Amino acid sequence: MGNKNSTYYILMGDVIRSRDYELDKLAEDLKDLVQSANRELRSKTLSPYTITLGDEFQGVTQSLESGIETLFYFEEQRLERKWDFSVRYVLHHGRIDTDINPDTSYGMLGEGLTRARNQLASKKRDRKKFQISVEDQELSNQINRLFEVLSGITDRWKTEDFALIYDMIRNENDQEVGDIHGKDRSQIYKRRKTLLVKEYALLKESIFACTKL
Fold first, then answer.
1. pLDDT of residue 53
2. Is residue 44 within 8 Å of residue 66, measured between CB atoms?
3. Cβ-count burial of 124 within 10 angstroms (0-12 exposed, 13-18 middle, 19+ buried)?
4. Structural domains in the chain?
5. What average pLDDT does the segment 141-162 reach?
6. Which residue, among 205, 188, 164, has the nearest Cα to 76 in the 3D structure?
7. Residues with Cβ within 8 Å of residue 48, at least 6 apart in sequence
8. Are 98 and 90 in contact (CB under 8 A)?
9. pLDDT per residue as tens digits for the range 29-68
10. For residue 125, what pLDDT is reported?
11. Which of 105, 74, 78, 91 is nearest to 21 (CA)?
């Protein structure tokens, strides 16, 4: 058994309204997403992201900042790959009583895991897409408020625009993005303004700033 006083950042997610999607395709896409995160964020993950049910996954990350980075990685991978499913997340700082398994996060036990799972499974009508819970309640509230504003932007994005949005997030040069998508610079400028890509980037920057407070 692990240290009873050990607390960790636990990240869980589940696909919203998974029954609306073709289950075999969804399972394949979710597996690809989790494997990609484990590969690209390996140095920042204590226990790898593991699919616990057909539409749910969990993992243990090194820090609050690493957990937030993983959330954005998941969300932006959905954009790049043009996947139309949406994920609800819980990032909770809590106790894990068993040893941290470096090979799979399935099967570990502790109050932190139980609390995170209960948050994820909550059926409250006002539950949010992003739920951040750390020891500092005011910090949790601040990050959650920022994520709620961010969701107000991203929830309006349409699947057919995902690849364009992904490239605009990664590249501020409208001409270069336009060359990729067969549009001129002014068209990309207008889409960037309409889709609130700059505002998304500012919110993302603000959320990361909170993790350093």
1. 82
2. yes
3. exposed
4. 7-136 (3.30.70.1230)
5. 97
6. 164
7. 38, 42, 59, 102, 103, 104, 105
8. no
9. 999 999 999 999 999 999 999 998 889 999 999 999 999 9
10. 67
11. 78
User: Residue 65 has which token pair?
Assistant: 């900042």
pTM of the entire predicted model = 0.93
In the chain, the amino acid numbered 64 is L
DSSP tag of 86: -
- Mean pLDDT (the chain) is 94
Q: CA-to-CA distance for 169 and 163, rounded, in angstroms?
A: 10
Q: What is the 3-state secondary structure (H, E, C) of 134-203?
A: CCCHHHHHHHHHHHHHHHHHHCCCCHHHHHHHHHHHHCCCHHHHHHHHCCCHHHHHHHHHHCCHHHHHHH
Q: For residue 127, which amino acid is it? A: R
